[in-house]
Design goal:
The longest helix has 17 residues, at about 325-340. With about 425 residues, the protein is of the alpha+beta class. The protein is built from 10 helices and 22 strands.
Length: about 425
């Protein structure tokens, strides 16, 4: 394919290769489909390739699970946007055989994931949480990608890893990490590994959104000829559940009671968390203020969700107060919120995007009027439209077409609930 864009979703497949026994094989002509997954709630990237094999390639190598697959894609004319990644072969699935060929799916996983699975740590770590995570990543996991720490933490901890894997240790520390909002995540994107809070991603993204996408049932003729407009058109929106009141109440999202039992001081405290009020203290996708996704009169009581945490500190050298009251209940509500209010949108693929970006969605109200003629706020769904955080992307590349299935999240409305 020439290095020019004819239609949104055009892609240059620069490499799909498999390395086995010290030799690299170009398998671009064998691959029917490639899917690559990135997710802010997943530590590593995964994927799969679907292969049509008429030369028994799978048995001639043979593929046994220690091979590496390299993929490299690029949107034409995008000089800085390349999706390039090395994976380990994690398995062969859905193998179909007939007399002339076989079709099978090769599942892929990041190199760091395999390293994590065979590594155990028995060591003490103390200090700022972001510094410990950086030290663990650099010593036990680092391969080709760097860890980007987007904000330094106020939180500290002291822990002896009881033969945990590096990622299990990192995830344990992440749950206790905070600067302002305790919704810290550790993930791999198509560009780097990141340690950041969701609040920080929102702060960066709202100030400079990646792009604006618009949904309409049909495309006008002039729009169909405009590649720039094609890239910003939502092809499909999948159904999603925006809220479940009973589940949220049972999970302690609306309100909760954290009881801390302090062995050192021989005292206990009750810490009441009210998410409606806490919402105003954390930066969200539509700034702070009365943009909550649930009404203030929502039935809730802190004792509906009670959690007891025992503190033991100061008895031994470097043992620190875990300060559960600063993060435990708050993180519980914030992470629940981040996992619930989702849409799945299908858009033409681009290789310059990664998870963690903020996008703006324009979604019209359901109306009998011609949506292509609708303009103005009166025809825009003020609750569905607005800023969203991209939490996951599935890059699907088939027949030289790149499609992205993006999972996007909102934690607030641009319009106050009545």
């Amino acid at each position: 394919m020439s290095d020019s864009i004819q239609q949104a979703g055009d892609v240059k497949i620069e490499e799909i290769s498999i390395t086995a026994n010290g030799k690299k094989y170009d398998i671009r002509n064998l691959v029917l489909e490639t899917s690559i997954y990135e997710d802010i709630f997943s530590n590593v990237m995964t994927g799969y390739i679907v292969v049509r094999d008429s030369a028994s390639f799978i048995t001639q190598l043979p593929i046994a699970g220690i091979e590496q697959v390299t993929v490299k894609f690029r949107t034409p004319q995008f000089t800085n946007g390349v999706l390039q990644k090395q994976f380990y072969v994690n398995g062969v699935e859905e193998r179909i055989l007939d007399n002339t060929q076989q079709i099978y799916s090769i599942s892929l996983i990041s190199l760091e994931a395999l390293t994590d699975n065979i590594t155990r740590i028995s060591k003490k770590f103390s200090g700022k949480t972001h510094e410990i995570i950086k030290a663990v990543f650099d010593k036990y996991l680092k391969d080709k990608k760097e860890l980007q720490i987007l904000e330094e933490h106020l939180s500290s901890t002291s822990v002896v890893s009881p033969y945990w894997s590096p990622l299990k240790l990192i995830n344990w520390i992440v749950t206790r990490s905070y600067k302002n909002a305790p919704n810290v995540v550790f993930f791999e994107s198509s560009k780097n590994f990141y340690l950041t809070s969701i609040e920080h991603l929102i702060r960066q993204g709202v100030a400079n959104p990646y792009d604006t996408f618009t949904y309409s049932a049909t495309a006008a003729t002039e729009e169909a000829l405009n590649v720039s407009v094609q890239f910003r058109r939502i092809l499909n929106i999948s159904p999603s559940t925006f809220f479940d009141v009973f589940q949220a109440q049972d999970f302690g999202y609306y309100a909760s009671n954290l009881i801390t039992h302090d062995i050192t001081l021989k005292q206990y405290y009750e810490n009441i968390h009210n998410q409606f009020e806490y919402h105003n203290k954390v930066l969200n996708l539509h700034d702070t203020g009365k943009t909550q996704t649930f009404p203030q009169k929502m039935p809730r009581k802190p004792d509906m969700f009670r959690r007891v945490r025992t503190k033991q500190y100061g008895m031994f050298e470097e043992t620190k107060d875990p300060l559960f009251e600063k993060w435990a209940a708050q993180r519980n509500s914030l992470m629940y919120e981040a996992s619930q209010f989702h849409l799945m949108i299908e858009v033409p693929g681009r290789t310059d995007i990664e998870v963690g970006k903020v996008v703006v969605l324009n979604i019209p109200k359901s109306t009998e009027r011609d949506l292509n003629q609708a303009t103005g706020r009166d025809l825009t769904d003020q609750y569905l439209s607005g800023n969203y955080l991209v939490t996951a992307i599935r890059h699907s590349i088939a027949t030289n077409k790149h499609t992205m299935y993006m999972e996007v999240m909102k934690d607030s409305y641009q319009k106050e609930l009545p």
